[in-house]
Amino acid sequence: MSSTFGRLFTVTTFGESHGGSVGVVVDGCPPRLRLDVEAVQHELDRRRPGQSRLTTQRQEADRVEVLSGLFEGRTIGSPIALVVENTDARSGAYDHLKDLYRPSHADWTSEAKYGFRAWAGGGRSSARETIGRVAGGAVARQLLGALAGIEVVGWVSSVHDIDAEVDAATVDETAVDAGPTRCPAPAAAARIEAAIDRARRDGDSLGGVVTCVARGVPAGLGAPIFDKLDATLGAAMLSLPAAKGIEVGSGFAGTRLRGSEHNDPFVVGDDGRPATTTNHSGGVQGGTTNGEDVVVRVAFKPTATINASQRTVTRDGDEVDLAATGRHDPCVLPRAVPLVESMMCLVLADHLLRQRAVDVLPREPGDVPPPV
Fold it and tell me: What's the burial of 211, exposed, middle or buried (CB within 10 Å: 0-12/13-18/19+)?
């Protein structure tokens, strides 16, 4: 079940980079949701290759086809199957790699696990698998909006040693998508674009951080002990290709503060419920949302495929030099933004439905009203 994520709202992705198609089966989506398929396509367009010179030049339209689960524009409660065809694979470009183990790829580890591997395009370990996550996440995004008015926005907050100052409370998708870097801070975006260009010309790559905020999340989502919301977010984000770290709220920077500095003081909010004056917790306390914005940062390593010469070994145990050729992203960050947003949406949609399943009995007088 390693290709399935979620408990009540689940996604199962399928397909390989150089197979006939990739996609997702979404199960557990409630009936009667008016699903905007063009909104699903919009998210896939934000993820697709060939968007600018900063990304891989593989040319894929990534047009989504709905195979099941919809009738007259509404979900009917059965599994929703979404599929995208692969049309520009060029498997022959990988012929010279079939007996090599590319540094920092899943080549050797896949063979160690399964005994052999689909070497064309990286098979299942390719980032093309994320098409299914983005399509499923687009369904989850619409469910979150319909049930709770939750809004999710991600952006590139750093690349290499360049940091961007962005207001998580006000940033929107229009500002994020205004440039090819998906960094909504213009000065930092210009520096990031130049840095990615230099790395591309040098045959090298860069890593960085995507920050994501979910606004309008009600208090009460998440559960102790092993189903804490931040634990689920950690599993979700670290399952993304090239992801190597996640922070919720203050993250590691919080270790440099005292408790008196880090604690988020409570006040009475506009709705009469508790609210905090700061958000070092990133909207999650005790593994459960507290009604503030949920904020995460996800670290992505530099792209493993580079054109510079590297030492590696063959399946026969010979040491060789490898300078990879072909199409790849010199920096995954711009295309990683919709991936992080999608995983945030999937986590929140699942926990939202799970909370509703828990709250089946009416709350008695004196109890706190339900979150959703």
Answer: buried
Neighbour count for residue 238 (Cβ, 10 Å): 14
Reduced 3-state DSSP string for 109-156:
HHHHHHCCCCCHHHHHHCHHHHHHHHHHHHHHHHHHHHHHCCEEEEEE
Structure token pair of residue 248: 């919720």
Question: 370: pLDDT confidence band, cut at 50, 70 and 90?
Answer: confident
In a domain, 370, yes or no: no
| Cβ atoms 338, 153 nearer than 8 A | no
Domain assignment present for residue 368? The answer is no
CB atoms within 10 A of CB 175: 17
**Cα gap 34→103, rounded to integer Å:** 45
Q: How many domains does the chain have?
A: 1
Q: What length is written for the chain?
A: 372
Closest alpha carbon to 130 in 344, 342, 352:
342
Domain membership of residue 363 (yes or no) is no
Do 227 and 306 form a contact (C-beta atoms < 8 A)?
no
Tokens matching residue 371: 């979150």
Q: What is the DSSP letter of 97?
A: G
How far does CA 225 lie from the centroid of its chain? 24
Structure tokens at 118: 């689909």
Closest CA to 140 of 366, 351, 281: 351
Rg of the chain, C-alpha, whole Å: 21
Does residue 5 register a pLDDT over 90?
Answer: yes
Domain of residue 314, CATH code: 3.60.150.10
Q: Which domain holds residue 318?
A: 4-358
Reading the block at residue 9, the tokens are 């709202």
Report how far residue 221's alpha carbon sits from residue 214's, in angstroms, rounded to the nearest whole number.
Answer: 13
Identify whether 367 is part of a domain. no
pLDDT tens figures, 60-88: 789 999 999 999 999 999 999 999 998 87
Per-residue DSSP letters for 37-96? HHHHHHHHHHH-S-SSTTS--------EEEEESEETTEE-SS-EEEEEE-----GGGGGG
